[in-house]
Amino acid sequence: MGSDPATRMLVDGRAVAAAAGATILEACDAAGRYVPRLCYYPGLASGAAAGSGETPAGLRPYTECGLCVVRLADGSTPLACVTPACEGMEVTTDDPGLQALRRERLERILSDHPHICLSCPDRDGCARDECSYGNPPEARCCEELGSCELGRLVDWLDPTLLIPRRAVTVPRDAAVEGRIRREPALCIGCGRCVRVCELSPEAGRALEMAACDARDSGEGRGSGGGHAHMVARPKLGTLRASGCTFCGRCVLVCPAGALTAPGEDGARWLAGRRDKCGLPDPVFPPEERQPFTGEGVDEAPAKPGVFRLYDSSGEVLRISGVDDLRRGLLEAFADPGCAAARWFRADPDPLFTQRESELLAQYANRWGHLPPGNGLGDDLFEDDLPEVSD
Predict the structure, then answer these.
(1) Where is the domain boundary, 235, 255, 277?
(2) Which domain holds residue 350?
(3) Do 226 and 112 touch, CB atoms closer than 8 A?
(4) Which residues contact 99 (CB under 8 A, 6 or more apart)?
(5) What is the pTM of this model?
(6) Rounded to an integer, what distance in angstroms lies between the CA atom of residue 179 and that of residue 266?
(7) Are residues 217 and 117 both part of a single domain?
(8) 10-residue stretch averages of pLDDT, the chain, 390 residues long
(9) Which segments of the chain are extended strands (E)?
């Protein structure tokens, strides 16, 4: 028997052939048109689907994030994650009205989540021990600052800070079991971890969704005063008692820092789990990355600035401040030490030396070392690196 015919539709005026049975969001992803999302993860049911009973028995309903809203030709604004792609459908993924809807829904999420650091002008070079602006530790972002999906989504949805930024304080109690660090007050209730734990044969079905209460966050959700909130938690209080197999899938899908594998050892552990588990990669907001090819480098501006090189998995290989981005990238392109680079980002900046130092400090504070392509003597003094325990 032949395969089902593709569904033909228009996405932002472009003809798209979606796989039979695909949702609008899946069709947009396949066509390379980014639609924001938090509760949805490739290969897992979305929070909206789970809440409507469309997932296996045992999954608790969640409140969908609502960020994947799109506009159809009739003016309706459905959620792309649960709406089937239909023949002849015309979909708009971005317009001023959709942007306003998404900001409104994102503001509700941020009302209960520490986010003040996301818009801080000093965030890239911050040492993270004291805040220059006097924000208490309970209001500051977690160690995922600069790499978490939620932060990248906030930057993409609200680059001009139309959503008011506030110092939302929440109890920052954390529990560590094995390599997994769990900070319940950072949970945004997307339900990804619960779904992957329920649906993966190697996982232990150890997590559940529950109404936020004192067991999860000490004093409730803190100072945000936001909407009613569901959070993920171990069914029997701790991961081990709940049957966790420490497969790492919950950490891999968490978008908000509630589940992490901290430190260099944690990063290595998580990388090994990622290689074994077969989870699809997350779909992040688009960044201004260019293919690291001769043609791509030739299009870089001949201006002072900082460039970053990335490998095929998106990991940073090198950060360099140069007085001429095009020339610096051409030199890197000819350098055998940069052979693994597949993408680059070039940001013009007349204060390129300062910007380079900020980015390197941020990387070193997170990973305990410089990027593979940066030597100690090139960019930072050895004393500037944070100490990393064995």
Answers:
(1) 277
(2) 290-384
(3) yes
(4) 157
(5) 0.76
(6) 6
(7) yes
(8) 78 95 95 94 75 44 82 97 96 96 96 90 73 89 84 92 92 95 94 95 95 49 55 96 98 96 90 89 84 91 94 87 96 94 91 90 81 69 42
(9) 7-11, 14-18, 71-72, 90-92, 175-177, 180-182, 207-211, 230-234, 259-260, 290-291, 305-310, 316-322, 343-348
